[in-house]
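User: Just a sanity check before I run the rest of the batch. Below are the structure tokens for the first item. I only need the designed sequence back.
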């Protein structure tokens, strides 16, 4: 059961009640009164509206008491569907989830060959239609679409900015173009932020937890959820843990800093070092022109299966990433940390093991409480799943998530 809350403790009483039912359900109205501090009539009114809106349903189960049996409440998994599209380096991953975070559909396609905004929007719109039509979802059942990718992002404008560095995708204003094509609300956000919300939502994590997510794809990012809401920062670009310096006066980074974590622990950096080890690339059949994601998967698989040189490189990455995890845990006093993203898809267990060890030894609050470290159940799709969760949170629990405007 979550800690006692008051209406003033959260962005809104409806969001508070939805979040408690999501994480603690089945739960009765009487229990909601006790946990929230709201009055019984207030809880009854909120729950009635949630049932009328289809967000919450009574399970049919009851708890026996001396008085009237208490009906139990749960989130209605079919209340709405969220759609998330993750824009990778050369692929698009589209995932549809139900209101409880369960995946109901997925499709992976090649990314758009043309990087012009209009062409990208057309490709994204076509993918959205293919997936939702293929699942037979009525248009009114879809709460919206979130497009997520590497930051920085301009959430208010609905686009990806143009950051320095040839690896980054930028200059794409998508929200307005997609909304016009699809007639659904469209959000644009960073992949790390989306993954944090998706893991929090889908795992039914209690809002009493200080929840963190470490995300690794082409870069390294993070997200932190406090009292049920993602901490966004001044411009919704918080959590760039990949741009903390881990090597003094180290390699220059496109962000303008030197010695950034990404330049030493991210997949592209590990692959670059692997190519300098005599005979390793030939033995693993890694070519210099292979995409970093593919080459890193091959290297990680070799590490898991016992190749000493490959394992040494991955363990070096894990040790550096553990430093970032300690920093993240110390800054936010985390009690839960999940590793998500394609970078953890193959050798995630090696990273989990090292991060658990380092936090147990070095976390500032280790004598007060431990930090639970888990691997995402679906690291590759975590950002797309998180995009769908962003839409659903903003729709069914407004105040905790981004504002999801209703259709005109």
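Assistant: Here's the designed sequence for the first item:
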């Amino acid at each position: 059961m979550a800690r006692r809350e008051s209406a003033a403790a959260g962005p809104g009483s409806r969001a508070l009640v939805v979040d408690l039912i999501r994480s603690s359900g089945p739960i009765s109205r009487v229990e909601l009164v006790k946990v929230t501090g709201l009055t019984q009539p207030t809880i009854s009114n909120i729950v009635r509206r949630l049932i009328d809106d289809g967000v919450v349903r009574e399970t049919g189960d009851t708890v026996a008491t001396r008085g009237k049996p208490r009906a139990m409440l749960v989130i209605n998994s079919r209340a709405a569907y969220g759609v998330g599209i993750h824009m990778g380096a050369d692929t698009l991953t589209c995932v549809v989830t139900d209101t409880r975070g369960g995946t109901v559909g997925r499709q992976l396609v090649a990314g758009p060959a043309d990087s012009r905004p209009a062409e990208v929007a057309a490709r994204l719109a076509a993918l959205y239609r293919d997936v939702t039509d293929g699942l037979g979802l009525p248009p009114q059942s879809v709460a919206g679409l979130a497009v997520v990718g590497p930051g920085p992002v301009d959430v208010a404008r609905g686009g990806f900015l143009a950051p320095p560095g040839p690896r980054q995708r930028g200059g794409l204003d998508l929200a307005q173009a997609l909304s016009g094509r699809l007639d659904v609300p469209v959000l644009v956000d960073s992949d790390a932020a989306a993954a944090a919300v998706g893991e929090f939502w889908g795992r039914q994590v209690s809002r009493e937890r200080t929840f963190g997510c470490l995300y690794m794809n082409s870069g390294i990012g993070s997200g932190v959820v406090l009292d049920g809401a993602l901490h966004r920062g001044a411009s919704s670009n918080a959590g760039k843990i990949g741009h903390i310096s881990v090597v003094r006066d180290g390699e220059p980074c496109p962000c303008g800093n030197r010695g950034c974590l990404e330049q030493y622990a991210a997949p592209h950096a590990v692959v670059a070092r692997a190519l300098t080890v005599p005979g390793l690339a030939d033995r693993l059949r890694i070519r210099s022109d292979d995409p970093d994601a593919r080459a890193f998967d091959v290297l990680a698989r070799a590490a898991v299966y016992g190749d000493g040189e490959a394992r040494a490189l991955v363990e070096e990455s894990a040790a550096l990433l553990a430093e970032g995890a300690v920093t993240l845990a110390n800054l936010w006093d985390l009690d839960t940390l999940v590793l998500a993203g394609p970078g953890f898809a193959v050798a995630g267990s090696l990273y989990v093991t090292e991060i658990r060890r380092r936090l147990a030894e070095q976390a500032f609050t280790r004598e007060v409480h431990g930090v639970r470290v888990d691997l995402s159940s679906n690291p590759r799709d975590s950002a797309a799943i998180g995009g769908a969760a962003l839409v659903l949170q903003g729709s069914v629990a407004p105040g905790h998530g981004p504002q999801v405007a209703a259709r005109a």
